[in-house]
């Protein structure tokens, strides 16, 4: 039973480029959450999605960031025109039901040059 | 602003000792409490969760919750060098009108178990 799958594991982008991070939840899980972890900081909630719906994006920066969870395929976190401050580890988590235990993927380490 | 506070450590214990990790939270309406272990450069791994006041034991791990004091702790008995990691406390706030799916994490406590 595969866990939460994220790719790529590492992503290097130059300032101004776009970053696309992918997440496939655990089998049977329909709730997806994205968290960001900055150096020396705790994990911070970004967005909560169910299939085809954004439920809560209150933790997402208002500009340049977007997320989706289409009917088919993985959830995507998209960062346009990246800046150095976007460099962080981005973790995806999933749960079977809302407010149940979260299981995290291995994360994507984004480095902006 | 909901907050979760942890001592950043490092907490250093000898192999075989009991490691005690502590966490306080600000949202009195919080309902669920989780402990995650995170090895350097790896993803958080859920090791314990607790919903009710008191103790919950699972193998070498015991989670303790005191809602009146807004305090949750994790005890690791017979600590092993492989337990060396950062331990993250997370709280799920379901107070009135709040979202019950959003975890608020502490910054974590670095535990080092010395052989």
Give a description of the structure.
The complex is a heterodimer of chains A (113) and B (115). Chain A has strands spanning 5-7, 10-13, 19-24, 31-37, 43-50, 53-56, 65-68, 75-79, 88-95, 103-104, 108-112. Chain A has 113 residues and is mainly beta. In chain A, the strands form two sheets. In chain A, strands 2, 4, 5, 6, 9, 10 and 11 form a seven-stranded mixed sheet that branches. Chain A is globular, with a radius of gyration of 13 Å. Chain A starts with a strand and ends with a strand. Chain B has no helices and eleven strands. The radius of gyration of chain B is 14 Å and the shape is globular. In chain B, a hairpin with a 4-residue loop joins strand 7 (61-66) and strand 8. By secondary structure, chain B is mainly beta. Chain B is 0% helix and 56% strand. The model of chain B has no long low-confidence stretch (mean pLDDT 91). In chain B, strands 2, 4, 5, 9, 10 and 11 form a six-stranded mixed sheet that branches. Classes of the chains: A mainly beta (113), B mainly beta (115). The interface between A and B is medium-sized, with 24 and 24 residues.
What descriptors fit this protein?
heterodimer; A: 113 residues; mainly beta; seven-stranded mixed β-sheet; four-stranded antiparallel β-sheet; 11 strands; globular; B: 115 residues; five-stranded antiparallel β-sheet
